[in-house]
Design goal:
Elements: E1 2-5, H1 13-22, E2 27-34, E3 44-46, E4 58-62, E5 74-78, E6 82-93, E7 100-108, E8 114-116, E9 119-123, E10 139-146, E11 150-159, E12 162-165, E13 178-185, E14 190-195, E15 198-204, H2 205-208, E16 216-218, E17 233-235, E18 251-253, H3 265-268, E19 275-277, E20 289-291, E21 303-305, E22 320-329, E23 334-342, H4 345-427
Antiparallel strand pairs: 1-2, 2-23, 3-6, 4-5, 5-23, 6-22, 7-13, 7-23, 8-10, 9-10, 9-22, 10-11, 11-12, 13-14, 14-15, 16-21, 17-20, 18-19
Subcellular location: Endoplasmic reticulum lumen
Family: Belongs to the calreticulin family.
Disulfide bonds: 114-146
């Protein structure tokens, strides 16, 4: 654990001395920071959960198959189709009246198919050798991927012993490069979620979790007032129908129509001039519409204050003492790294910036080179398979022709012997 005094501007020594005498000291605290350098194993305890069933996986200390810095190692899940559980302990931390920052990086090198990549913060006493899926936690944060439907970021908070997932559907990254996930929880219960230092989501525990009842509810006892005006436009009562308007016909004889020369009144009947729409006819008369001066809009059920006991410490988690990784993966290969728990968002952003600035492009180039090698190997294996298939087809064709020749030879021999027997019999 480390404490850092925030002193950003340069101040003369004497003035700084006077300032320190009159102002309280503000510290930012690094609660836990793990870069998985040499000796990391002494700080972490691998759980025996699922070991007796043969379903417990393990962790490699590695930078992965491609990395911007081969010496920058994390811990990678292996082998496939296992449960993975590991945790580390640190001095108990209470986030009351403080900002909580939880941050880590993960790289999905594998085609994960279905599995988690999240971390957990744990409170109280935890038997680390038995840490597993049923161990209570105070916070669960990170990506979870399964098939094409589930590609989400979990953000689950525990309140009074019950877990509450965030109501928002937040998408996680699905490529095979390193990404940083940062969760910031403040004293006013507001939060920000960052991915690679870019804001992905923000909100409040009051509105984005179903922990407390909503502060406002609809008053379903309210009824629309009888004099409520919901009509935006009304008839203009001063508008008067023009004189003779009702005498205007909707159709009039077509002045251009002429009786056909071939028309025979005796046979065809009396010819009548066809009619056409009257251009002067405007339809049934209606008063003009004007803006309703008493318009109040569509009536809506009003909102009222919800009477419940608020919790000013809604944002406060149970004092945390452990950070853990507990996931199940169909295909293993995820690299966890750069775990940070602190109360300083600026420091967290600085960590992400420095690591991505140094390693992002190099890691991308290493990944693209690895992809070229992989694709070339797959093409080589596919070519070998095609050649082997062609060889087998040719062998099957040779065997068939050989069998046909053998059958023809046997048939010829049988027919020849039969002919000779008949010939000898005739001679006798």
């Amino acid at each position: 654990m480390a404490r850092r005094l925030l002193l950003t501007p340069k101040i003369p020594t004497f003035s700084l001395f006077l300032l320190l005498l009159t102002l309280p000291l503000f510290y930012s605290e690094i609660i836990f920071e793990e870069r998985f350098e040499d000796g990391w194993g002494s700080r972490w305890v691998k759980s025996d959960w699922k070991k007796s069933e043969g379903k417990a996986g393990s962790f490699k200390h590695t930078a992965g198959k491609w990395s911007g810095d081969p010496d920058d190692k994390g811990i990678q899940t292996y082998p496939d189709a296992k449960h993975f559980a590991i945790s580390a302990k640190f001095p108990e931390f209470n986030n009351k009246n403080r900002t909580l920052v939880v941050q880590y990086s993960i790289k999905f090198e594998q085609n994960i198919e279905c599995g988690g990549g999240y971390i957990k913060l744990l409170s109280g006493y935890v038997n680390q050798k038995k840490f597993g899926g049923d161990t209570p936690y105070s916070l669960m944060f990170g990506p979870d991927i399964c098939g094409t439907q589930t590609k989400k970021l979990h953000l689950i908070l525990s309140y009074q012993g019950q877990n509450y997932p965030i109501r928002k559907d937040i998408q996680c990254e699905t490529d095979k490069l390193t990404h940083f996930y940062t969760f910031i929880l403040r004293q006013d219960a507001s939060f920000t979620l960052l991915v690679d230092n870019r804001e992905r989501e923000f909100g409040s525990m009051y509105t984005d979790w179903d922990i407390l009842p909503p502060r406002k509810i609809k008053d379903f006892t309210a009824k629309k007032p009888k004099d409520w005006e919901a009509r935006e436009y009304i008839d203009d009562l001063e508008d008067v129908k023009p004189e003779g308007y009702d005498l205007i016909l909707s159709e009039i004889p077509d002045p251009d129509a002429k009786k056909p020369d071939s028309w025979d009144d005796d046979e065809d009947g009396e010819w009548r001039q066809p009619k056409m729409p009257n251009p002067a006819y405007k339809g049934p008369w209606k008063r003009k519409k004007i803006k309703n001066p008493n318009y109040k809009g569509k009536w809506k059920t009003p909102w009222i204050d919800n009477l419940f006991e608020d919790d000013p410490d809604l944002y406060v988690l149970k004092p945390i003492k452990y950070v853990g990784i507990e996931v199940w993966q169909v295909k293993a290969g995820s690299v966890f790294d750069n775990i940070l728990i602190c109360d300083d968002p600026d420091y967290a952003r600085k960590v992400v910036h420095e690591i991505l600035e140094q390693n992002k492009e190099a890691e991308k180039e290493a990944f693209e080179e690895a992809e070229k090698v992989r694709l070339a190997k797959e093409e080589q294996e596919a070519q070998k398979a095609r050649e082997e298939g062609e060889r087998r087809r040719k062998e099957r064709g040779y065997d068939k022709n050989h069998r046909d020749r053998e059958r023809y030879r046997d048939k010829y021999k049988r027919n020849r012997h039969s002919y000779m027997d008949d010939y000898d019999h005739d001679e006798l």
